[in-house]
Amino acid sequence: MSDLPRKAVTRTAKLAALPLGFAGRATWGLGKRIGGKSAEIVAREVQQRTADQLFKVLGELKGGAMKLGQALSVFESALPEDIAGPYRAALTKLQEAAPPMPTRTVHKVLEERLGEDWRDLFDEFEDQPSAAASIGQVHRAVWHDGRTVAVKVQYPGAGEALLSDLTQLSRFARLLGPLVPGMDIKPLITELRDRVSEELDYELEAAAQQEHAEEFDGDPDVVIPGVVHQSDQVLVTEWIEGIPLSQVIADGSQEQRDRAGQLLARFLFSGPARTGLLHADPHPGNFRLLPPADADSSAAADEDTAGGTAGLDGNPSRWRLGVLDFGTVDRLPGGLPRAIGDALRMTLDGDAHGVYSSLREDGFVRDSIELEPDEVLDYLLPIIEPAQVEEFAFSRSWLRSQAGRVADPRSPAHQLGKQLNLPPSYLLIHRVTLSTIGVLCQLGATVRLRDELESWLPGFVLEPGHDEAGPDDEGEPEAAQEAAPVDA
Questions:
Q1: 8 A C-beta contact, residue 135 and residue 30
Q2: Residue 164 located in a structural domain
Q3: Is the residue at 161 inside a domain?
């Protein structure tokens, strides 16, 4: 029997317990207050108990439940501090770890997928997982040729669990609202469900990762582990040492935060231009900060094991970013759509009519909607503030102000945002952009974002002799007229 709960009735009951548990703790808190405790202390205790239950339930279920938790974790920067604080630690745990499946289950999967003599493929294999995520867990091992490798083993029944969870979670979306006030969770769940089939296919993941590994081979800034072996439900890749981004967020130095933020922006903008693929799961658990290629990495490895962030020495400009998990990618053969760069450039230039025409042409404004170009420009300018300056200090307070401006039903930005449209071909790009901004704000990194846009985003810098982009430009997705409204 699988250790991943698969029966719909069992998983549904556990998920249903989340909102019911919230109500129960509210009653418990009222009792505490009657007993004499202050409202502030009681509220903090209730939120901490809720956070603990959130990690326990989503972590134990893995599958789509944990995937939702990971997705939510990158958005905590947008929440008011008194709400986000108690949930931050619990959600961050979901980026790096979850309760592991038993060793006997791991061995059974390896035997089924690699053969009865699977141990002959390895000189060493660590039964204790180094990481456990939403659809699989990773074990450190030594391949038979002496290379240290990461062995990713998919949970038995992960596909069935993912689809079941996300279906059930969509029904509870309204009740899960208190976890992320102001955010519409249902579209996020719908999109996650649409992507699960690709993420479950380790052959697709191996192909995407190997393409990145070959393109970034020898790159001074980005490290992608190569693929060593792949079979159904098992993926073996090269092992990389480094400090997880979640640790940098928790207690990294400002130099580490700034360098990690710069490299994260560089990778996510340069990847589509160099490979035609967009890494579409940018939560902190998928990134590591590494020393230079010619440095002794043993110190970083020791600090990584100990949970510290002091294992990087030398010139910060030579630290590198390690990138993991290519299970979810967006295929963009021409790189990021030129329409994005055109719209950004025209917004920065204050060309209200130009950017409005571009947005309408590409489906962001429906034919049936009429908006004032100047109001659209006013809506966009604060959002693209990081691109207006040479370097920008990302922060939770800045993101909270942006989220509040758009979410406040009384604000003009909220009213205008409801009338904008998001073409389906931009859904994943939109989520990756928001998630990346969330991570940069968690890092509190000062980043030269404009440098990366100028280097990698088509249309951001207008080439001599190239007029404004049209809908047939290479790499630009075909706009659709029916889609979810832009929420941020």
A1: no
A2: no
A3: no
3-state secondary structure (DSSP) of residue 357: helix
Query: How many Å separate Cα 472 from the centre of its chain?
Result: 30
Dist CA 405 CA 188 (whole Å)? 20
- The label of the residue with tokens 């619990």 reads 90
Phi–psi pair at 309, nearest 5 degrees: -130, 20
DSSP characters for 224-263? -PPEEEEETTEEEEE----EEHHHHHHH--HHHHHHHHHH
Name residue 258's amino acid.
Answer: D
Query: What single-letter amino acid sits at 89?
Result: A
What residues contact residue 365 under an 8 Å CB cut-off, 6+ apart? 356, 359, 371, 376, 419, 420, 421
The pTM of the full predicted model, rounded to 2 decimals, is 0.74
Name the 3-class secondary structure at 41.
helix
Q: 64, 163 in Cβ contact below 8 A?
A: yes
How far is 178 from 161, CA to CA, in rounded Å? 24
Cα–Cα distance between 247 and 261 in angstroms, integer? Answer: 13
Examine residue 84 and state whether it is found in any structural domain, yes or no.
no
What SS3 class is residue 305? helix
Kindly give the parts of the chain with pLDDT less than 70. Answer: 1-99, 133-134, 159, 161-196, 296-311, 464-488
Cα 446 to Cα 95, 197, 314, 389, 461, distances in angstroms: 23, 36, 20, 11, 22
Residue 314 tokens, joined: 């030398």
Cα(479)–Cα(12) distance, integer angstroms: 37
Please, are residues 481 and 366 in contact by the beta-carbon 8 Å criterion? yes
Domain total of the chain: 1
Per the structure, the complete domain to which residue 371 belongs is given by 338-456
Contacts of 229 (CB under 8 A, 6+ apart): 121, 143, 235, 236
Cβ neighbours for 4, distance < 8 A, ≥ 6 positions apart: 61, 62, 63, 101, 155, 156, 157, 158, 161
Residues 6+ positions from 141 with CB-CB distance below 8 Å: 122, 124, 125, 126, 148, 149, 150, 151, 236
392 assigned to some structural domain = yes
Q: Which residue carries 């009338």 as its tokens? A: 419
Do 242 and 304 meet the contact criterion of CB atoms below 8 Å apart?
A: yes
Pair 169, 68: CB distance under 8 Å = yes
Segment 188-206, tens digit of pLDDT: 566 666 666 777 889 999 9
Helices (H), 172-201: 185-200
What pLDDT is stored for residue 424 in this prediction? 73
Asked if 107 contacts 125 with a C-beta cutoff of 8 angstroms, the reply is no
